[in-house]
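Lab notebook, design round three. We kept the backbone fixed and only want residue identities now. Task for the bench partner: fill in a sequence for the structure below.
Input structure tokens:
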């Protein structure tokens, strides 16, 4: 009987897919547990049951999500809020759903280096990734009036482990755990989370071109709703979600370590739920304006769109092209 029910459900999903509108969602990095909710939603049919035949396009070092949108290679994309704000003027992006509410970006030092406070970083060698990841640390150092020697950070943690860097950038769900796999115990490290330093930039969110939103807001809402259901399911069934993630990683020849992916999924739960019972796609005005202000102050963006012009209301039942209620903004 359970097999019969499962077969019937599969038939329903397939039937829905046949009638669904096709769409593509490009990720801003390679498949891993950071994107478990999207992969689960695709495989479990959460997009299809909402009338969207969604194909997930993997990201990577050579994939620019905004270019995919501008060149009609995808209708929807994931990216950090700071990235989207900086690129919005040239591509007319709009925000349709916030996934990650707490920044996972951090600086890590070793206690053996005698760095205990942020002021101890003055004059030290600090590893940083590309431009999008330098906004928070540079804003922090400017605020504290300290100067560091910025070193371009490679994907490997080897330079840090060989004491070639005094501090290294890390994502809590990824590189921090990698350092543990190198043999560092949490007690051996000093961590500085930007979310605790008044630089809590929301990270992974869902975006599309304004023209896409205005043409078909119903599909955009369906993508947001399906994604949130995917994350809720992934958190409720972590091992099943990991099976799907690792299967997709192997499909794209991405190295897959289940223990590392399990850590990543658990940390994604922390920063997505942020103490709430379920994923919430709302981007608050305060989070947006704090992030936008730092971008402009640091020169990473000449200007930033207003909240009401940038953040679309993707809640179920909202009027087709309304921004967040009570804010006015772009029609």
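Proposed sequence:
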């Amino acid at each position: 009987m359970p097999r019969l029910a499962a077969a019937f459900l599969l038939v329903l999903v397939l039937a829905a897919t046949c009638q669904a509108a096709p769409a593509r969602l490009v990720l801003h990095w390679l498949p891993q547990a950071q994107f478990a909710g999207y992969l689960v939603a695709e495989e479990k049919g959460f997009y299809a049951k909402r009338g969207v035949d969604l194909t997930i396009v993997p990201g990577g070092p050579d994939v620019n999500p905004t270019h995919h949108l501008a060149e009609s290679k995808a209708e929807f994309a994931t990216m950090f809020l700071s990235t989207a704000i900086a690129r919005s003027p040239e591509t007319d992006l709009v925000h349709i759903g916030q996934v990650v509410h707490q920044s996972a970006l951090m600086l890590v030092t070793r206690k053996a280096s005698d760095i205990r406070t942020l002021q101890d970083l003055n004059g030290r060698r600090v590893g940083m990734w590309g431009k999008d990841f330098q906004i928070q640390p540079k804003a922090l150092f400017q605020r504290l009036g300290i100067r560091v020697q910025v070193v371009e950070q490679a994907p490997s943690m080897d330079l840090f482990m060989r004491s070639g860097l005094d501090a290294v950038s890390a994502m809590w769900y990824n590189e921090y755990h990698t350092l543990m796999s190198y043999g560092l115990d949490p007690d051996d490290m000093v961590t500085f989370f930007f979310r605790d330093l008044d630089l809590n930039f929301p990270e992974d969110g869902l975006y599309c071109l304004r023209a896409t939103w205005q043409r078909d807001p119903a599909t955009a809402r369906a993508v947001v709703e399906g994604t949130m259901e995917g994350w809720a399911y992934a958190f409720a069934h972590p091992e099943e979600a990991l099976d799907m993630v690792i299967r997709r990683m192997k499909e794209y020849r991405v190295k897959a370590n289940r223990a590392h992916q399990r850590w990543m999924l658990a940390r994604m739960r922390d920063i997505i739920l942020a103490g709430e019972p379920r994923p919430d796609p709302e981007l608050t005005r305060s989070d947006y304006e704090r992030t936008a202000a730092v971008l402009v102050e640091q020169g990473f963006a000449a200007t930033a769109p207003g909240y009401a012009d940038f953040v679309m209301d993707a809640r179920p039942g909202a009027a087709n092209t309304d921004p967040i209620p009570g804010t006015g903004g772009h029609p």
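Keep this in mind before ordering anything: The chain is about 40% helix and 15% strand.
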